[in-house]
Amino acid sequence: MFPTVARLELDDLLTQLVDRARDVLATQSRLRGLLQANRIIATDLRLPVLLRHIVEAATDLLGARYGALGVIAPDRTLEEFVHVGMTDADVARIRYLPTGQGILGLLIDDQRPRRVDDIADDPSAYGFPPGHPPMRTFLGVPIMVRGEVFGNLYLTDKHDDAPFTAEDEELALALAANAGVAIENARLYHESQQRHLWMTASAEITRLFMAGAPDSLGMLARRVLDVADATFVALALRADDGDGDGQHARVAVAVTDQDQNHAHDRDRAAAGPAPAGGGRAGRRIPLEHTLTGRVLTERQALRVDNAQLDALPDERTNRTGPLMVVPLVAGTDQCDGALLVGRDHGARAFTDTDLVLATSFAGHIAIALELAHTKADQERLLVLADRGRIARDLHDHVIQRLFAVALGMQDLAQYENPSNADRITAYIENIDATIKDIRRTIFELRSTQPGRGNRLRGALEKISDDIRPALGFTPAITLSGPLDSLVDDRLTDHLIAVAREALTNTARHARATTAELRLAVLGDTITLDAVDDGVGIGDSTRRSGLDNLRTRAEIVGGTCSVTTPPGGGTHLRWTAPL
Question: How far apart are the C-alpha atoms of 158 and 138, rounded to whole Å?
Fold first, then answer.
């Protein structure tokens, strides 16, 4: 038998060995738990999914009832708060997630691990909002990415109700270190995916521009909307209105995530404001004291976190928060426009990487636009050369032959009986009308900018010729302003109809001796004035004929008024916004 003292020493030694064995087993269990947690973290590279996996792994590893990961924003608040443990009913009662006050804010300001045995007794405790489940113990550790604090991992209330220990803190720090590596990998993966999406979009849009696809600018805006995970995209180009001020940019296209039918985006933009207050096509943005003007002037991209404070209404929607404004720079000397990309207020802010990728995309698009314009200019020169040849042939050959025929028939009419002479005279008048049509065609063919403006000019001249027999004289026509570049097809149709109705009313009711049409672009408005020296607007029949003109004005958001000038007659003014 062992002596009593020796037996006691042996019992103590056995007890120590058992305790150490238990500690080893506990350590092994914790290491296995840490390895399992690391495996869970590494299963997905999507950052939102990864953040939730980190919190779930931490609560399982440390036996905590509640866990959360707060992502720190540039202003040192919590821009994202991923939590586990609370039920949907708990979240609904609390209503608002933490923003970084109290003990959470202390960990943001002092990036060191923090253990608290009773939150209520901690001097930095801010208190819980109504409906928040009770919590007592607390453990918080920072998560570092690239040497900077990405966020903090928060754990509360162990299942055994014991306080968090130093071993728990070490385990949480080890998990946070691995989480930082995983977050870095997820960020790199996300950046590579985004770079691929931007490059693919750049190639697609370049092909569309070079092919001269219709609505290529609208397709560009919608593609950026998808790639940038944005809710608002607009393209502003330097205004070329012919006024020479050079102090404005014009919104070429604007789309939002609320647009349901992408095929009609440009039609809706031309007809009125984009959804949620977005800038519409044709709106002008001043270059002075605006984000767009700053980007066009400095040729440097910029981003803001709250566009409601920093941007004009035409540079955003009424929902826009984060906003990027990126220059379209094709070379080193000129910036032809800017790409505006926005997200809703409260959404994830744009990063420096987002700005770099969008800037690279905009540079490629600027070059593609320049090449497309050059190609279009070359094709236009070929068309103009062909049109010039046709115009010369019409003038030198066709008109001369028609003149010869008309002169011959005029001479023949002198020797025919009166009935035949009248028929020949009618034929001669038809030939004269044909010659006028050909001359009008020659004028349009020789124009350097065939398009809407020439269509409008030609239509007004034809209306003047058509109404001349009824009036007994030719009404004067005066045109001024950049009609070619500002008046779209829809507005051209309205102007032609208004001009015809106005002159028709004059011919039917005014008994005028002079009449004039004046069409002018003044700022953002086009004005059509129809003036005659007739008997005025007193006839009720003539008044009813003007109702259609007022209806057309209401359709386009314009005005229609009829007044009597001091010298008598009638002055009809019809306006529409551009």
Answer: 9
- Helix axis angle, 47-62 relative to 166-211, nearest 10°? 170
Instruction: Answer whether 435's CB lies under 8 Å from 405's CB.
Output: no
Hey, where are the domains in the chain? 37-185, 212-350, 372-450, 451-578
Task: Rounding to the nearest 10 degrees, give the CA dihedral for residues 498, 500, 502, 508.
Answer: -150
Task: Please state whether beta strands 476-480 and 515-522 pair in parallel, antiparallel, or not at all (unpaired).
Answer: parallel
Where does 270-413 show beta strands of DSSP type E?
Answer: 284-286, 302-304, 320-329, 335-344
The CATH class for the domain spanning 212-350 reads: alpha beta
Considering the entire predicted model, what is its pTM? 0.57
Contact by Cβ (8 Å): 98, 208: no
Two tokens, residue 438: 């050909």
The CATH superfamily of 451-578 is Histidine kinase-like ATPase, C-terminal domain (3.30.565.10)
> Class of 37-185 per CATH?
alpha beta
Query: If we measure between CA atoms, which residue out of 386, 429, 422, 371 comes closest to residue 405?
Result: 429
Query: Please, which residues bridge with residue 441 across strands?
Result: none
pLDDT at 322: 92
d(CA 96, CA 92): 8
Nearest CA-CA partner of 254 in 214, 296, 287, 282: 282
Instruction: Tell me the pLDDT tens digit for each residue of 261-277.
Output: 444 444 443 333 333 33
- In 330-485 the beta strands, taken as DSSP E runs, fall at 335-344, 476-480
What's the pLDDT at 214? 74
Q: How remote is the C-alpha of 463 from its chain's centroid? A: 41
Is 261 buried (19+), middle (13-18) or exposed (0-12) by CB count in 10 A? exposed
Distances in Å between the Cα of 29 and the Cα atoms of 59, 157, 236, 415 are 15, 20, 61, 125
pLDDT in tens, 545-555: 578 888 888 88
Between CA 235 and CA 336 the distance in angstroms is: 11
Q: Can 37-185 and 212-350 be said to share one CATH topology? A: yes
Inter-axis angle of helices 166-211 and 352-393, to 10 degrees?
Answer: 0
In one-letter notation, the amino acid at residue 173 is L
Q: Can you tell me the distance from the alpha carbon of 396 to that of 505, in angstroms, rounded to the nearest whole number?
A: 39
Strands (E), 10-102: 64-72, 78-84
